[in-house]
Amino acid sequence: MVTGFGDRAKTDFLTGSDDQYEKMGIYFGLQSVSRPSYSRWIPGANRGDVFFDPSFDLSTAAAQNSFKALCAGVKLAECASVGCNKIANRLVDGASVTCLLDDFETWNGGPEVGADFESRLAAWVALEPAARGKLAGFVNGELKFAQITFTTTLLNLAPPYQTREVSYRPSY
């Protein structure tokens, strides 16, 4: 009865082609996550607790340069796996990479380092909290995490033989 449903869902309904590819994020500022009672069968319950890294500091020029270098590296990540099929030899669709510092600096008119960084970043996030709050996470007015988001060239639910060998090694 449901045989072919996945194929029909992809071909008979209007969806963007990007919906077929895995979306990912790289988080900074997280120290650990405790999920002792989490069950993948009940994903909305017992989500667990996150512990933030107290040494996370994105306000320095060195930290921001490293963050931006990783953003650039993710855009150019290579993949020789058969599973990376959207763009030949690429792990990530470079156009899909969202690097919060690039967008923030465009709005800010350039980089912001030092004591004013968090307040300026918070002002930027406040303009579009639903989207930007996922990229820069503030807890009690303090920046606790940052994220780089992107869409891979790996199809959702691709069989393991296509994705098993995929690994990312930064080349910068």
Mind explaining what this structure looks like?
This protein is α+β, with helices and mostly antiparallel strands and 172 residues long. It is 30% helix and 22% strand. The protein is built from six helices and six strands. The strands form two sheets. Strands 1, 4, 5 and 6 form a four-stranded antiparallel sheet that branches. Strands 2-3 form a two-stranded antiparallel ribbon. The radius of gyration is 19 Å and the shape is globular.
Question: Quick gist of this model?
Answer:
The protein has a domain at 17-27 and 57-163. 30% of the residues lie in helices and 22% in strands.
Task: Give the helix/strand layout.
Blueprint: H1 5-12, E1 21-28, E2 30-34, E3 49-52, H2 61-75, E4 98-99, H3 100-108, H4 117-127, H5 129-132, E5 136-139, E6 142-155, H6 160-163
Antiparallel strand pairs: 1-6, 2-3, 4-6, 5-6
